[in-house]
User: Fold Succinyl-CoA transferase from Actinorhabdospora filicis.
Amino acid sequence: MLPLHGLLLRTPLVELRVPGTAELLRLGEVAADGVHDAAIMPFQVPWTDLPPAERARSVVQNTWAQLGRNTPGDWGIPFAVFHDGEPVGHQRLRARNFAVTRTVGSGSWIGRRFHGRGFGTHARAAILHLAFTGLGADYAESGFHTDNLASAAVSGKLGYHRNGEEIGAVKGERAVTVNLRMSKEDWAPPFPIEIEGLETCLSELGVDR
Assistant:
């Protein structure tokens, strides 16, 4: 078992941890059931357009691949988001050259049938607390496509500031991404957040205390 498997984040609503095999398979089933409204595409890579079985497989494969390629200078933590012991979505925290940049990024999705219940807000708050309080980050960056109002709402609620825009293409169509940034001075936990099992992960994440 990797040290990251012992890392646990807990809020009053959700728990975040790197899933074991059985949990990861159940997380794939959540993705197969649907992640977002078909009228929008919130991701740069449109993986949710895959058929359900392939969508589930991609969740499993991408999680294993992330854990397999992690180094202290380039890492991602592929958390599953759990509510009452069952997976409801995914929240990743990532960084390159963290020891120098002290900057993290993130990406997430919540199963569509679980939308509107606060899981996304609690999951993002948990990884921000890990970044700023646990790892000593100076900045956290994120972004959202202009048609992804749910992501914009979560980011605004937690204290990100706009940091410019990028114009790209998704599925052959123009997509505008609003870039966001938060500093450690901006961070104020909106509810209690617990971190367990971090000390054994620090060297794997390039953090030297």
